[in-house]
Amino acid sequence: MNLFNFFQTIRRFQSPRRRLQVKRGQYSDSQSLETRVLPATLVNPTTLTYQDIDGDDVSVTFSNPILTAANVNSVFLFNSGNVNGNNTFPQQLRQIKVSDLAAAAGTTITTVATRNPV
C-alpha cells in the first residue's frame, strides 16, 4: 500500500461532528472555556507520535534525522492543531510534506499504528 492509499483509507473513517441539542425553553449550564488541541509529540529528530481518530497510537519514523521543533509543523498537517504536546486527543493526519526539506532526499518513512487497549 503506498502512502496516498494509506491516507485515503484514513480519510474514510473521519468521525462526524455532533451538535449539542437543547430543547426549547431549556438552558444549558455548560460553557466552553477553552479549546486545547494537542495532537502529536515530536519524540526525537526521526520520530513523531500521535493518536489517530480511532484512538490507536501511531508512530511515524523517518530513516534520517530531519525533524526539528522549527519544521515539524510544516512537515505534518493534522485536521486541527499542531505538533506541540501530548497524544491525548484523537487527530486525523492529513499530509506529510517533506518536499521542502533538502535533507529528506532518500529518506524512508515508516508509519505504524498500534491498537490502543483502552
Structure commentary:
It is a single chain. It is built from 2 helices and 6 strands; from the N terminus they run H-E-E-E-H-E-E-E. The chain is an alpha+beta fold. The chain has a domain at 38-118. Strands 1-2-3-6 form a 4-stranded antiparallel β-sheet, with no helix packed on it. Strand 1 (40-44) and strand 2 form a beta hairpin. The chain starts with a helix and ends with a strand.
> What gyration radius follows from the Cα positions, in whole Å?
17 Å
Trace the largest sheet across and list its strands: 1-2-3-6
Principal-axes geometry comes out as globular
Q: Which structural class fits the helix and strand makeup?
A: alpha+beta
Number of helical runs? 2
Q: How would you state the average pLDDT, rounded?
A: 77
- How far is the first residue's CA from the last residue's CA? 28 Å
* Low-confidence parts: 14-20, 26-38
User: How many β-strands, per DSSP?
Assistant: 6
Q: Estimate the strand proportion.
A: 15-25%
Main β sheet profile: 4 strands, antiparallel
In percent, how helical is the residue content?
A: 10-25%
SSE order in H/E notation? HEEEHEEE
How would you sum up this structure in a few lines?
By secondary structure, the chain is an alpha+beta fold. Helices cover 12% and strands 25% of the residues.
